């Protein structure tokens, strides 16, 4: 079932759980991730980042493939443009049928973030496309941005942002960061921020930078009010490390079998995060019909330069 993050996450809020949001840039990752969701009967969100879409996972190829895979299962599957920052990529994702779009203007001032996010909402909502925004700023693990409290989300800012933009999901900064953390480092999350933003806004909350953040941190974040946990680096590295090890052991590894086995590894790591989020069996809460219209009317609006 191909649907939106709003449809999925509204149920997550209602029933107090989170959904794994996993990056897919090719057939093997997409099929492995959806197979994991199907087996565990869990809703799933597939991420495709702006940079990934421009470098490899072209929208005109990825969207029809993911929609077809989603239609073959009864579990709800959403496809969201992750960290859309430039209008050309946002409208490209919109045109090709992403069910949801994240606009990340978190590096700008509050006023500019609101303005840019409003324009994306104005484009998407009339066509049933869900929108995620970000307040606070989730930076890079390599720069230890997760430790910089000045980047964390302030509950009062979250309230203003949600009221002004009417986003369907809100990404917040509370101690995680994107990418791979230094060896042995586990981030310290501020769960009080999660609880306060949840109480103040009551919109679905997204935790970006879930990779390497620690199982207990994820469980406690979900308990505090997180509804979407983004995973990219762990999936990429898990499949890469398997590939490297397999080829070192057998340089003549059959290529087709390698792809099949990579897909199995994608399923394996996705299953682990589905269990951590507490979404196993939650597909039973959803009616098995598509809830996302394929009609698109591209609005000639612009985001300020």
Descriptive key words:
46% helix; alpha/beta; disordered C terminus; 305 residues
Question: What topology does this entry show?
Answer:
Layout: E1 2-3, H1 5-15, E2 19-23, H2 27-40, E3 44-49, H3 50-55, H4 59-71, E4 77-84, H5 87-96, E5 100-103, H6 110-124, E6 130-135, H7 155-165, E7 169-172, H8 191-201, E8 205-207, H9 215-224, E9 226-231, H10 233-249, H11 255-277
Parallel strand pairs: 1-4, 2-3, 2-9, 3-4, 4-5, 5-6, 6-7, 7-8, 8-9
Describe it for me?
The chain is globular. The longest helix has 23 residues, at 255-277. With 305 residues, it is of the alpha/beta class. Helix content is 46%, strand content 14%. Helix 2 (27-40) packs parallel to helix 4. Helix 2 links the parallel strand 2 and strand 3. It has an eight-stranded parallel barrel, surrounded by ten helices.
The 3D shape can be described as globular
Mean model confidence by pLDDT: 90
What is the share of helical residues?
40-55%
Broad structural category: alpha/beta
Distance between the termini: 37 Å
As residue ranges, the low-confidence spans are 297-305
- Proportion of beta-strand residues: 5-15%
Give the strand tally.
9
What profile does the largest beta sheet have? 8 strands, parallel, barrel
- Our Rg estimate from Cα atoms comes to 18 Å
Q: State the order of secondary-structure elements, H for helix, E for strand.
A: EHEHEHHEHEHEHEHEHEHH
Total number of helices? 11
- Major beta sheet, strand line-up: 2-3-4-5-6-7-8-9
């Amino acid at each position: 079932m191909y649907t939106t993050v709003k449809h999925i996450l509204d149920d997550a809020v209602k029933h107090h759980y989170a959904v794994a949001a996993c990056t897919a840039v090719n057939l093997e990752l997409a099929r492995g991730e959806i197979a994991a969701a199907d087996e565990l009967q869990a809703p799933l969100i597939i991420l495709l980042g702006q940079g990934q879409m421009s470098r490899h996972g072209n929208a005109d190829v990825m969207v029809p493939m993911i929609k077809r895979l989603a239609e073959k299962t009864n579990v709800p599957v959403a496809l969201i443009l992750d960290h859309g920052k430039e209008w050309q990529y946002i409208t490209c994702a919109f045109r090709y049928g992403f069910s949801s779009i994240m606009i990340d203007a978190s590096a700008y001032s509050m006023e500019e973030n609101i303005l840019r996010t409003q324009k994306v909402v104005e484009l998407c909502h009339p066509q049933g496309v869900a929108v995620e925004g970000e307040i606070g700023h989730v930076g890079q693990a390599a720069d230890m941005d997760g430790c910089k409290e000045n980047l964390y989300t302030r509950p009062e800012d979250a309230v203003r942002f949600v009221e002004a933009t009417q986003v369907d999901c809100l990404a917040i900064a509370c101690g995680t960061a994107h990418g791979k953390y230094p060896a042995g480092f586990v981030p310290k999350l501020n769960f009080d921020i999660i609880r306060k933003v949840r109480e103040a806004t009551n919109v679905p909350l997204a935790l970006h930078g879930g990779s390497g953040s620690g199982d207990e941190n994820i469980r406690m974040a979900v308990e505090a009010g997180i509804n979407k946990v983004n995973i990219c680096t762990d999936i990429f590295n898990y499949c890469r490390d398997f590939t490297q090890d397999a080829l070192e052991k057998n340089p003549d590894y059959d290529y087709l079998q390698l792809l099949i086995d990579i897909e199995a590894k994608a399923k394996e790591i996705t299953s682990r995060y589905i269990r951590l989020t507490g979404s196993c069996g939650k597909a039973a809460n959803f009616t098995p019909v598509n809830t996302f219209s394929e009609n698109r009317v591209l609005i000639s609006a612009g985001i300020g330069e």
